[in-house]
UniProtKB/TrEMBL annotation:
This is 2-isopropylmalate synthase. It comes from Sediminibacillus halophilus. Catalyzes the condensation of the acetyl group of acetyl-CoA with 3-methyl-2-oxobutanoate (2-ketoisovalerate) to form 3-carboxy-3-hydroxy-4-methylpentanoate (2-isopropylmalate). GO terms for cellular component: cytoplasm. It catalyses: 3-methyl-2-oxobutanoate + acetyl-CoA + H2O = (2S)-2-isopropylmalate + CoA + H(+).
Amino acid sequence: MGPIKIFDTTLRDGEQSPGVNLNQLEKLEIAKQLERFGVDIMEAGFPASSKGDFEAVRNIARTIKNVSVTGLARAKKSDIDIAWEALKDADEPRLHIFLATSPIHMTHKLKKTPEEVIQTAVEMVTYAKQKFPHVEWSAEDATRSDRAFLATIVEKVIEAGATVVNLPDTVGYTTPEEYGALFRYMRKHVPNIDQVALSAHCHDDLGMAVANSLAAVENGATQIEGTINGIGERAGNAALEEFAVALNIRQDKYPYQTNLRLKEIKRTSDLVSKFSGMAVPANKAVVGRNAFAHESGIHQDGVLKNASTYEIITPELVGVQSNNLVLGKHSGRHAFKDKIEQLGYKLADDKVSEAFQAFKQLTDRKKEVTDDDLFTILIDVQTNIDDLKKYSLQAFQVQYGSSNMPTATVALTTPDGSRVETARTGQGSVEALYNTIEALVEETIHLTDFHLSSIGKGRDALAEVHVNMTVNEETVSGRGSAQDVLEAAAHAFLNAINRVFLNKSTTVQETAPL
Ligand SMILES: CC(=O)SCCNC(=O)CCNC(=O)[C@H](O)C(C)(C)COP(=O)(O)OP(=O)(O)OC[C@H]1O[C@@H](n2cnc3c(N)ncnc32)[C@H](O)[C@@H]1OP(=O)(O)O
Ligand SMILES: CC(C)C(=O)C(=O)O
């Protein structure tokens, strides 16, 4: 048997996490990193769901050449047609069609009889197969479906041309023992099952997504679906980094291979966390900040005597560098370029210059520039929307004292290039700043979430702010980093406002049937 195929759905199911809203440049950066990580298939979005998703899938399908790119579609001709427009330029266009098979979903959601569901599934797979060489068919809510019915519909969609069959645990309901038994059942009762790849897709509602995925491979699954950091609808999906490291560390129990490069795990996780605004909990397996930290005396004593006493995974295995101190104030352009190549980035010359400038500015203010800082600079440069910016920050000042009202003064450049300036108060410094920016822009803004974190450690660590808000009733998120917390907050707020204009300026081309 060949390696287990890894199907990443960070950009589709992962983006279904409440509050996550990735723009096209961010999606493309994540896609490039998933390619470096070595996933076999990436689900880049659901093209029929929005213009933004359509554009993102098309862009990724045209750019990513070493990973098979797919998009999701309902069992509807119009969804399939739109997906084809988005994916037709991929090297080997691949479609993912889903249709629910559980009594609950068929009765209450689809309002179809089981016979109608079989007929629709067969018709849509047949239709899709006229365009796409690879068609994955998912039996949504498979784990709450009748097994005999599931075996019948699976046999028929394979006859209709499906090349992959997925049995999702859509609501995270199943247990490892039950899920393993489902895969054994399918292998035994579907006569043509060996003609397709058999896939598992697990959700983490009961905290068993990775355990269930492992049970699936032990019982005949040849493809595993999941996301980076386990992000996704509700409690999320199986975390691919946890699945991959479990296979690696417990080869004795799971003698399966994947094409993943484990050393890329940390960077992939950092990138997804940064863009999605979903911080990785410190105690999360494999990528959490504490995953390799030893706090208690007995553990520290053991690790000093022999690391294997308390460490089953080495930080190096997943790309966590123990000493990530890098360039400083006196470093020049060559060393800088060399370092960013070591970090795996290939930037055009103008972007290298932009990143070098940002790096030099930082060295004036910060003693030690770490890999984390550089990483932040590089992805800011790669995804900056300056050319399309509607508003940009010229200057700001905030006056704060424990006994007076915080007051902010802000100067912005507006889209027509003019400079506007005003002052407002607020209950706190950030509110004063945001009230002032809001008074200067013409948009209607409602802030729904604000999250502050530090990049790296120490008093001079960079601050990073994520915001979620609605701008003119459109839901957007924004990100900003700076050494000062208020400056990072101002950048994040403006970044979110400006994304509305980015979304507007990247409309679907005439060819797209939307
Ligand atoms: C398990 C999963 O993760 S599935 C993927 C979930 N992802 C998303 O929903 C992405 C975001 N979704 C959207 O943007 C929207 O829901 C859209 C654009 C896809 C559809 O929007 P709308 O046309 O307004 O429909 P709405 O979402 O309200 O309802 C879904 C409709 O699709 C139907 N439907 C649901 N699943 C399927 C399916 N697999 N095949 C065919 N029809 C389906 C529902 O029965 C309902 O139909 P009805 O209008 O006849 O009752
Ligand atoms: C579309 C399918 C695979 C899905 O996301 C689920 O069932 O959870």
